[in-house]
């Protein structure tokens, strides 16, 4: 953005203001922005890129500096989220001189000037688990996460060759995990179809708590688009897998994803787990159940920063009650001595440790291990996972 002249900078600000003015918070901002660009075909690729950047940086301020005008908040957002910005250079040259400071120093400078409080970046810190390092987590909200992909077993050399042939920048994070800059377009690399899955680093790491064994029966109870199921099957292809979710439309998306991965052998059921599933499952018992429960998603708000202003504190307890209800339904179908793997992408104690303790106290389970996957150290999502064994 440093090359833009004053006229172009003001045009980008107007594009930002128009995009923000028309946004209704009942949909993900990414979906809205796609529609906004379709309605504004006069915006070229550069305009779209900068409108997206300015909007997302603005959302990353959360509830900070609300006493300031929208344009002034945008200047602060650019200052915090970027190392250089023609917008900041034009509208606040003295601030621009500090653009290369470490993020913590930038925040301290703005706090000392009385412009914002870092606690307002994420106004739910009182609900965070004590295991979450609050300051590091807060700062991570100002940094765009990486795009992570999981490579199918045995395909790592081929995938790396495709990426290098197409001059795609990447970092090999693990044997099957690759990080790329957010915004990398995988759609223009059809050769990767069936070889990789878009899956966050922390989500990939949950496999360490599943520990499937050949021939076992597993149930992915809230399967959504099937990310955890694909993880299970890639690690242990011979398991007998049941996937379920509350709507058939969700499972159709899962079917498409499984088809692209070449997976044919699995069962699926539409199940509303706020109700007793016995009419559909009978007394069926499983060697392992993955409960990737509906949650606030607070560990992923680095990807959807608009959620910070939309979310209401009271929703945390609503989610916690829902999670307890769903857990109460699925625990009856775990074999004695076998695991329930409870997962959320939340950083709130009420959705995590408290629900795990509820399962232990009310349903005859013991805790084998639990942890937070602290993605804020790796430009990734943060998640909670607990492996609970039925006594």
From TrEMBL:
Binding positions for S-adenosyl-L-methionine per the UniProt entry: 245, 272, 292
One GO cellular component term noted in the UniProt record for this chain: cytosol
InterPro entries for this protein: MeTrfase_RsmB-F_NOP2_cat, MeTrfase_RsmB-F_NOP2_dom, RCMT, SAM-dependent_MTases_sf
Residue intervals of the SAM-dependent MTase RsmB/NOP-type domain: 121-391
Gene3D superfamilies associated with the record: Vaccinia Virus protein VP39
Keyword Transmembrane recorded: no
One GO biological process term: rRNA base methylation
Active-site residues, as the UniProt record annotates them: 345
One function term, GO molecular function aspect: rRNA (cytosine-C5-)-methyltransferase activity
Family: Belongs to the class I-like SAM-binding methyltransferase superfamily. RsmB/NOP family.
Annotated protein name in UniProt: Ribosomal RNA small subunit methyltransferase B
Organism: Sphingobacterium thalpophilum
Protein encoded by which gene: rsmB
